[in-house]
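Saturday, quiet lab. Running sequence design on the structure tokens for the scaffold JK sent over.
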């Protein structure tokens, strides 16, 4: 699969899944734009590292995905967009009657509203170039629910719905829009939680991973950022040209339960 000459923008990509997706897109030949809300030397160094490793153009652009105008500026600053991966996301866990309003607003803004703004700004670029892929990193929580995650689940269900609408609005153009729904993914953030969870439950690593963290993931294996990147590259391939308006679960069977 060659994505040579394509420009891919991945929101929230200075760590975790976004970085993994950007690396797989670069490996497939795409020029990539990394993003987050910080503007540190290490953010720019990540882009330089990808450029050197994969021989593509890579840039880091600071933009805060909680702000609509910055979402749109990100696309404009990139100067073009063939592949848009909406990945930026945050989480907060609390019962709905105690859910802090500022956390609710931030989750809805970053996890859902940003997808509206970046997609609206990116589609004209895709139409001009006659090809486009929108890949939204939703969640198993875009298809199912858990207690105490009302904002996240509302936002992720919203992203799944928005993906279907964008697919219908672009159905007769060479543009597709889909949502990837990961289960539990082994990111540095998740890895860092393992020692504390082991202590909390008095369990060894294997037991804590299988019985506590992956309680709802039948495979008892984490998904990896490389698998999510590979799924994104597949959605950008010619084989996926008629796949639009749907979800692909990468969840070890979670949503089959
Ligand atoms: P992460 O915390 O490593 O990555 C989140 C990214 O979003 C980071 O790069 C962060 O800097 C960025 N971000 C946060 N706020 C931002 C803002 N205001 N503006 C711009 N960027 C911002 O977490 P992750 O696990 O890699 O999550 C990435 C996406 O995958 C999220 O949308 C998350 O909901 C989704 N997801 C993760 C899992 C999992 O198990 N890790 C499972 C399902 C879905």
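Result came back. Writing it out in full:
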């Amino acid at each position: 699969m060659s994505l040579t000459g394509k420009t891919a923008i991945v929101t929230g990509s200075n760590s975790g899944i976004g970085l993994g997706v950007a690396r797989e897109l670069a490996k497939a030949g795409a020029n990539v734009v990394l993003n987050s809300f910080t503007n540190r030397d290490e953010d720019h160094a990540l882009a330089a590292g990808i450029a050197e490793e994969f021989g593509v153009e890579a840039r880091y652009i600071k933009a805060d995905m909680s702000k609509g105008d910055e979402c749109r500026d990100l696309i404009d600053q990139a100067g073009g967009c063939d592949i848009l991966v909406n990945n930026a996301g945050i989480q907060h866990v609390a019962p709905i009657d105690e859910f802090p309003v500022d956390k609710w607003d931030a989750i809805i803004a970053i996890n859902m509203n940003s997808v509206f703004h970046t997609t609206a700004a990116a589609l004209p670029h895709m139409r001009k170039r006659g090809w486009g892929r929108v890949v939204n990193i939703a969640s198993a929580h875009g298809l199912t629910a858990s207690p105490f995650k009302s904002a996240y689940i509302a936002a992720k269900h919203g992203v799944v719905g928005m993906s279907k609408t964008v697919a219908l609005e672009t159905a007769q153009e060479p543009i597709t829009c889909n949502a990837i729904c990961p289960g539990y993914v082994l990111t540095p953030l998740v890895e860092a939680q393992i020692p504390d969870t082991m202590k909390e439950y008095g369990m060894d690593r294997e037991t804590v991973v299988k019985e506590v963290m992956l309680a709802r993931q039948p495979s008892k294996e984490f998904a990896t950022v490389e698998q999510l990147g590979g799924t994104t590259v597949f959605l950008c391939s010619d084989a996926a040209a008629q796949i639009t308006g749907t979800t692909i679960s990468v969840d070890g069977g979670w949503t089959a339960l």
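Notes for JK: The chain is about 45% helix and 15% strand. The longest helix spans residues 101-129. Ask whether to fix the surface positions before the next round.
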